[in-house]
Amino acid sequence: MEPKWLSWAKQLQSIAQAGLTYSRDKYDMERFQQIRDLSAEILSEHTEMDIEKVRDLFCNETGYQTPKVDIRGAVFQGDKILLVKESIDGCWTIPGGWAEVNLSVKENVVKEVMEEAGLNVKPKRLIAVLDAGRHNQPVKVYGIYKIFVLCELIDGAFKKNIETEDSGFFALTDLPPLSFGRTTEEQIAMCFEAKSNENFAAVFD
Question: What is the CA radius of gyration of the chain?
Answer without folding.
Answer: 19
